């Protein structure tokens, strides 16, 4: 009997792996105002699922390929006439629509689309766990290695150039890391909830911290608490696991915001 | 004199529009060069080309190998979702021991700011922190892109005095942009006037006439500023040619008041010989 024989243990480990990678990455998504970028990449993943089933390749490879293509397309097209939000809106919904149409062509294959839209963390196997942790550690290493360069590029592209950093290369690093996280997370939380896991923990961490590094660490801690709390809650109340994780994260965000509001109000009356 | 940056016959696009045409420019070690010109004349484009953020579509940019650039941007909007203290900001992109961060802030005339959030600083404090960070790179070339924008008169005067002190202490070259046509530093070794192309460039003349201008613009800044008036009364057609006369095509044109009624140059007499 090993720990991995329990589906709850596997689900928890899978959720932790995704959150550890999503936390620092999510901070950059928030700082750079790329919230819809996560959405667009995640929606494109459905097209990846359809292609993977059609060509009988691994779902992970199919999703990774399409998510990467989407990420590079957005990076390349940005700043060429259309606003970033318009561009992401067009690409995101088109990719989702084409993905759904492509899935309908797959005759003889029964696709549980709900599993990809909302994920099925309780069905995570040992191989999935290996892929998730492999991808998560890769993304963590990449972001840790480029951390300072990414920060300077985020603050100001010209400041980066003056320090000998190419902000476009850093943007590419970020988009590749984002594509990897989406590809490994699709099994766990599904397309719809990936973007929320990227954004809610950093947003909840923001009022509690004073430095970028602290924000990434606190976001990771909030993510871990959401995974453990959400899965336990799902078990106790018999609720869907993926959405329960996001609900806990949203509640923590609410508490942090209220706490910050109270502290500001008290600070003003006390001063 | 060691050449730090040389730009030869460069044209630079900003998106689909041509921001600069046929620009020759250079800056040498230790000299102060000021770029002036009206809005949209390509001043920031020239700065970005010097830094390497923009590549010219024609012509060439040569930088001294290993050139270290300290850059103070025109404005730095920090997203409110990005928490960052002054001490942490100074340590980007290279980590900085806290003791050194405190020392640098002390030198910049803004002690006690180390643990403040960047977003909470006043305009003057912010610019001094930006300057302190630029100096941490121990630059060969310090670039200031309208760095006093948003500062009041005493604030910008104090800022320019600090830059003069830095240049004397470190011997780095300084490249400054101003869109205030009438105010440039008396200590500028050269002034480059841009309007899509280099209209004219040269040493600010040592002119004793019109002392009322110095009283207006020079005294408030401890004599560090001088007057440089240049009326842009000409426009350009789509090819960047002048529609009416104004010294255009004079690539090596020094301003002399008697030669050009449109140009008045006034500078504090230089104590040091050129």
TrEMBL record, chain A:
Family annotation (InterPro entries): ABC_BtuC-like (IPR037294), ABC_TroCD (IPR001626)
Topology of this chain in the membrane: Multi-pass membrane protein
Location(s), subcellular: Cell membrane
Keyword Protein transport found: no
Primary localization: membrane
GO cellular component terms given for this protein: ATP-binding cassette (ABC) transporter complex
Gene Ontology biological process terms, A to Z: response to zinc ion; transmembrane transport; zinc ion transport
Domain of life: Bacteria
Pfam families per the UniProt record, alphabetical: ABC-3
Transmembrane segments annotated in the record for this chain: 12-31, 43-70, 90-109, 130-152, 172-202, 214-237, 243-262
UniProt KW Oxidoreductase keyword: no
Keywords: Cell membrane, Ion transport, Membrane, Transmembrane, Transmembrane helix, Transport, Zinc, Zinc transport
Record's function text: Involved in the high-affinity zinc uptake transport system.
Family the UniProt entry places it in: Belongs to the ABC-3 integral membrane protein family.
Name of the protein in question: High-affinity zinc uptake system membrane protein ZnuB
Organism for this UniProt entry: Thalassovita autumnalis
Lineage: Bacteria, Pseudomonadati, Pseudomonadota, Alphaproteobacteria, Rhodobacterales
TrEMBL record, chain B:
UniProt-listed Pfam families: ABC_tran (PF00005)
Molecular functions per Gene Ontology: ATP binding; ATP hydrolysis activity
Enzyme class: hydrolase
Annotated ABC transporter domain residues: 5-220
Family annotation (InterPro entries): AAA+_ATPase, ABC_transporter-like_ATP-bd, ABC_transporter-like_CS, Metal_Ion_Import_ABC, P-loop_NTPase
GO process annotations (BP): response to zinc ion; zinc ion transport
EC number per UniProt: 3.6.3.-
Classification via SUPFAM superfamilies: P-loop containing nucleoside triphosphate hydrolases (SSF52540)
Name of the protein: Zinc import ATP-binding protein ZnuC
Protein source organism: Thalassovita autumnalis
């Amino acid at each position: 009997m090993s720990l991995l024989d329990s589906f709850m243990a596997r689900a928890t480990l899978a959720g932790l792996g995704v959150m550890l990678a999503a936390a620092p990455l999510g901070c950059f998504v928030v700082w750079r105002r790329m919230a819809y970028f996560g959405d667009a990449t995640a929606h494109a993943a459905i097209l990846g699922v359809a292609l993977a089933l059609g060509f009988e390749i691994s779902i992970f490879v199919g999703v990774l390929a399409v998510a990467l293509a989407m990420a590079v397309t957005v990076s390349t097209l940005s700043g060429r006439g259309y606003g970033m939000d318009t561009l992401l809106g067009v690409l995101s919904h088109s990719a989702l629509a084409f993905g759904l149409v492509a899935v309908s062509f797959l005759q003889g294959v029964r696709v549980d689309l709900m599993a990809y839209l909302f994920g099925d963390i309780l069905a995570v196997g040992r191989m999935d766990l290996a892929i998730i942790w492999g991808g998560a550690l890769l993304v963590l290493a990449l972001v840790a290695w480029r951390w300072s360069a990414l920060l300077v590029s985020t603050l100001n592209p010209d400041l980066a150039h003056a320090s000998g950093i190419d902000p476009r290369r850093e943007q590419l690093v970020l988009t590749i890391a984002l594509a990897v996280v989406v590809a490994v997370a699709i099994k766990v939380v599904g397309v719809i909830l990936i973007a929320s896991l990227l954004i809610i923990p950093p947003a909840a961490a923001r009022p509690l911290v004073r430095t970028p590094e602290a924000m990434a660490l606190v976001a990771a801690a909030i993510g871990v608490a959401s995974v453990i709390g959400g899965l336990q809650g799902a078990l106790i109340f018999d609720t869907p696991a993926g959405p329960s994780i996001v609900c806990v994260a949203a509640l923590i965000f609410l508490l942090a915001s209220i706490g910050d509001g109270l502290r500001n109000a008290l600070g003003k009356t006390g001063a | 004199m060691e050449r730090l940056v040389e730009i030869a016959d460069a044209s630079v696009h900003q998106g689909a529009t041509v921001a600069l045409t046929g620009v020759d420019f250079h800056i040498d070690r230790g000299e102060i060069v000021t770029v002036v010109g009206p809005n949209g004349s390509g001043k920031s484009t020239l700065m970005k080309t010097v830094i390497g953020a923009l590549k010219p579509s024609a012509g060439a940019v040569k930088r001294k190998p290993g050139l270290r650039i300290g850059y103070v941007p025109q404005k730095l909007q920090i997203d409110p979702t990005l928490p960052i203290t002054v001490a942490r900001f100074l340590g980007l992109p290279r980590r900085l021991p806290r003791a050194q961060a405190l020392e640098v802030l002390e030198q910049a005339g803004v002690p006690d700011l180390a643990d403040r959030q960047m977003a909470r600083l006043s305009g003057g404090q912010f610019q001094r922190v930006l300057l302190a960070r630029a100096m941490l790179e121990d630059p060969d070339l310090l670039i200031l892109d309208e760095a006093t924008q948003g500062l009041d008169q005493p604030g910008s005067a104090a800022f320019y005095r600090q830059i003069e002190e830095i240049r004397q202490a470190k011997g780095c070259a300084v490249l400054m942009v101003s869109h205030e046509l009438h105010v440039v530093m008396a200590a500028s070794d050269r002034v480059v006037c841009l309007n899509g192309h280099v209209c004219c460039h040269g040493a600010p003349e040592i002119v004793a006439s019109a002392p009322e201008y110095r009283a207006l613009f020079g005294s408030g800044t401890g004599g560090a500023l001088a007057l440089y008036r240049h009326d842009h009364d000409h426009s350009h057609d789509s090819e960047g040619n002048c529609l009416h006369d104004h010294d255009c095509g004079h690539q090596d044109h020094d301003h002399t008041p008697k030669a050009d009624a449109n140009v008045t140059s006034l500078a504090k007499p230089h104590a040091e010989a050129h």
